[in-house]
Write a structure and sequence with these properties.
This protein is an alpha/beta fold and 363 residues long. The two termini are 29 Å apart. Strand 8 and strand 9 form a beta hairpin. The strands form three sheets. Strands 2-4-1-5-6-7 form a six-stranded mixed beta sheet, with helices on both faces. The protein has a three-stranded mixed beta sheet with strand order 3-9-8, with helices on both faces. A three-stranded antiparallel beta sheet has the order 11-10-12.
Length: 363
């Protein structure tokens, strides 16, 4: 599960990455201080793990994790190679989702690559470069598909139809995310290309220390843009978050109280990024560990079993499942079972977010 942090140079990407991962990557006040992508792992905060541990004590708790890739700043002309753009765009292609960091604060001491702060223009700059890069991919793929389609290859004909739909969408200045394809086979073909603009986007508004709730006009414009796309926006002051990360727990709580915050904004970001990728968690619990496992929303029970061990998916028989709410109500798995709340589900069961599970598989 991998998310790429993108944006123009000097919008706070590396500062944010440092705060999320405590990686200590150098962040400078000039463009392209990040060249090779930095990679870090972030735990996804989930209070349900502590709830389970309250009723089922264990030796360790293992949360879900999110892999973050800090990708160098993208500038106008990146799709044509400006600012080493082709290299940076290829790094984006490898991630599952995009966290788009947008500068929403004024500070004369921090250079803006375009001279002034304008979040909508900045978003359009990135979007345009991603669209142009996808158009190049479509055009080269069309040439290959056309040769096979002329030879009577049925699969190539379907592939060509998908590419033509994609080209029309991109040529109209729209992302692949906006393309509606209902046919499962066509959808499968589209997914194979891993188009940049097909990836889900979470907007991150980087604000100043005196606007932690994002009430300035820059954030409002970005919020309206995100809502029009059906997307998600999280407001973060990267500088504050980096400072919080460096404190011990007691000092961090004191600083949060002074700022009027319940938790670091990065906790909100980690959860939002997890959901924006289309993932959910199920849990296993025992005296050795309580663990959150990551599965796509809509995953079936055998697929979830396979996340624990690949052999479990092949040899799946059934799953016993109950909810965290059941555990809070009955206080133990034994009481849940006696109350008839323990569900026995088969291969067609759609896993629910927060299921606590026992899987049974053939030896």
């Amino acid at each position: 599960m991998e998310a790429g942090i993108v944006g123009l140079p000097n919008v706070g990407k590396s500062t944010l990455f440092n705060a999320l991962t405590a990686a200590g990557i150098a962040s400078e006040n000039f463009p392209f201080c990040t060249i090779e992508p930095n990679i870090g792992i972030v735990e996804v905060p989930d209070s349900r793990l502590n709830t389970i541990n309250k009723y089922m004590p264990t030796e360790k708790i293992i949360p879900a994790v999110l892999k973050l890739v800090d990708i160098a700043g993208i500038v106008k002309g990146a799709s044509e190679g400006e600012g080493l753009g082709n290299k940076f765009l290829s790094n984006i292609r490898d991630v599952d989702s995009i966290i788009h960091v947008v500068r929403c604060f004024e500070n004369e001491d921090v250079i803006h690559v375009s001279g002034n702060v304008d979040p909508l223009r900045d978003v359009e700059t990135i979007d345009t470069e991603l669209i142009l890069a996808d158009l190049q991919s479509v055009e080269s793929s069309q040439q290959r598909a056309q040769k096979k389609a002329r030879a009577g290859d049925a699969e190539a004909k379907m592939r060509l139809e998908v590419l033509e739909k994609s080209f029309a969408t991109l040529d109209n200045g729209q992302s692949i995310r906006s393309l509606q394809i209902d046919d499962p086979e066509e959808k499968k073909i589209l997914d194979e290309y891993r188009f940049l603009t097909a990836k889900k986007v979470l907007y991150l508004a980087n604000v100043s220390e005196d606007d932690l709730h994002g009430e300035n006009e820059h954030v409002q414009k970005l919020r309206e843009r995100s809502e029009s796309e059906g997307g998600t926006i999280v407001v973060v002051c990267a500088a504050i978050e980096e400072e919080l990360r460096e404190l011990d727990e007691a000092d961090r709580l004191e600083m949060l109280q002074d700022l009027g915050l319940k938790e670091p904004a990065l906790n909100v970001l980690a959860r939002a990024a997890y959901l924006s990728l289309g993932y959910q968690s199920f849990f296993t619990s025992g005296p050795k560990e309580i663990r959150a496992w990551t599965i796509p929303i809509g995953a079936k029970a055998p697929q979830a079993a396979g996340v624990i061990h690949t052999d479990f998916e092949r040899a799946f028989i059934r799953v016993e499942a109950y909810s965290v709410d059941d555990l809070e109500e009955f206080s133990s798995e034994k009481a849940i079972r006696e109350a008839g709340k323990l569900r026995i589900e088969g291969k067609k069961y759609d896993m629910q977010d927060g299921d606590i599970c026992h899987f049974l598989a053939n030896p």
